[in-house]
Design a protein that fits this description.
By secondary structure, the protein is of the alpha+beta class. It has three helices and seven strands; from the N terminus they run ββαββββαβα. The structure holds zinc ion. The site of zinc ion has 8 residues, from loops.
Length: 174
């Protein structure tokens, strides 16, 4: 008759080693050096600076900007909300750098990637029929030809940054 010796098994405990090696060698200090302001990835839980809505999982181009006096970049659910904030006279003179998705290389329905461009030199399509996070929004492109392809398909007119104003953006929010 054989005896079953189940209780005698020794277990080797796996030790998770090395977590202390993940030292923060890469500095957050660099964020504060002038001239290298840049976007950060849209993370789950990030909220739109203007409307407070969670940003991730919404369609359409997103925007990020740096305002004088704030260490962190501000993120927005849509280019529309970013410009509503930026073009507000309370903020407009303090915006240092701003970035928008390049929709020539970013899928509209899953626009949370890292293909951003300088918002001041982008081409915008306004009045098209694609919906952003909260309805109408500005479609942003680095390239005029790509913007024209978009407007041919979805309508709207091309605008340079200098042609945007608060009244135009506000008209998209009603
Ligand atoms: Zn928003």
């Amino acid at each position: 008759m054989m005896k079953h010796s189940t209780g005698m098994t020794k277990r080797n405990l796996l030790k998770l080693a090395g977590s202390s090696l993940l030292l923060s060698a890469c500095g957050k200090q660099t964020d504060k050096v002038a001239g290298i302001q840049n976007v950060t990835k849209i993370e789950y839980g990030d909220e739109c600076r203007l409307c407070g809505m969670l940003i991730s999982n919404f369609p359409g181009p997103k925007g990020q900007l740096f305002e004088r006096g704030y260490d962190q970049n501000m993120k927005f659910c849509s280019t529309r909300d970013m410009f509503a904030y930026w073009l507000d006279p309370e903020h407009s003179h303090n915006i240092q750098s701003a970035f928008v998705h390049d929709m020539a290389v970013t899928p509209w329905d899953l626009a949370d990637g890292d293909r951003y461009i300088n918002a001041r030199t982008a081409i915008y399509v306004v009045g098209h029929n694609r919906r952003g996070a909260l309805g109408p929004t500005l479609a942003s492109f680095s390239d005029e030809a790509a913007a024209r392809v978009f407007s041919d398909q979805f309508g709207g007119r091309l605008h340079l940054f200098d042609q945007l104003n608060l009244a135009l953006v506000s008209s998209m929010m009603s």
